[in-house]
Design a protein that fits this description.
- The protein is of the alpha+beta class and 200 residues long.
- Helix content is 44%, strand content 22%.
- It has five helices and six strands, in the order ααβββαβββαα.
- A six-stranded antiparallel β-sheet has the order 3-2-1-4-5-6.
- Helix 1 (13-46) runs antiparallel to helix 2.
């Protein structure tokens, strides 16, 4: 079966539901924070001077939350591009250190060779969903959509609850690093470029 005849991940109704659920969650969080932000500024202007520092801390936290939600919305756009460009396959999950996860999958141009991509937890925290999940499911298979050499999306059997996560090799998204050039077929190069990855 050729890549052109394999159903894409986005063709799966459960995948579409998971992505839309994640989108609604992030939009609701962003909207709530956007409503709180001007309310916090207004409250800061009206409160006594001794109470202003507390309100300023709250406003700063709300601003950071808005920034986080916007980052998550950008990631969801990237996830959508990957889901529309690749089919689901499998990867094996492993914990990496105390707070990260590592996913192993086959090289599309050389299926006998397996490569890995690391999912780094923000701020090195170990209490995020995927960090906890990888520690308790070491060696378990997850769904993987993408090219392990560049960018992909991981999910598992509870994907219907919005557990989709973008993973990428640093050089595939970081413009300060040299993108991968060797061992990449023309088809793989074009597909990676189509979903927004940097390819040499």
């Amino acid at each position: 079966m050729t890549s052109s005849t394999v159903p894409l991940a986005w063709d799966d109704p459960a995948t579409r539901r998971a992505w839309r659920a994640a989108l609604l969650l992030q939009l609701a969080g962003a909207l709530f924070a956007l409503i709180l932000f001007p309310a916090g500024l207004f409250a800061t202007a009206l409160t006594p001077s001794w109470f202003v520092p507390l309100w300023l801390v709250l406003v700063i936290l709300i601003g950071l939350h808005i920034h986080h939600r916007l980052e998550q919305l950008i990631n969801l756009v990237r996830i959508l591009r990957v889901l529309k460009g690749y089919a689901w396959s499998t990867a094996v999950a492993h914990p990496a250190g105390k707070s990260d996860c590592r996913f192993e999958a086959a090289n599309p141009d050389n299926p006998a060779r397996h490569l890995s991509v690391r999912l780094r937890t923000p701020f090195g925290g170990s209490l995020t969903y995927w960090a906890r999940w990888c520690r308790s499911h070491d060696g378990e298979k997850v769904r993987f959509c993408g090219d392990i050499r560049f960018i992909g999306v991981v999910a598992h059997h509870r994907a219907g609850k919005g557990r989709l996560r973008l993973v990428s090799q640093p050089e595939a998204i970081n413009r300060r690093m040299s993108p991968r050039r060797k061992g990449v077929s023309q088809e793989a190069r074009e597909r990676a470029l189509a979903v927004g990855a940097r390819v040499g």
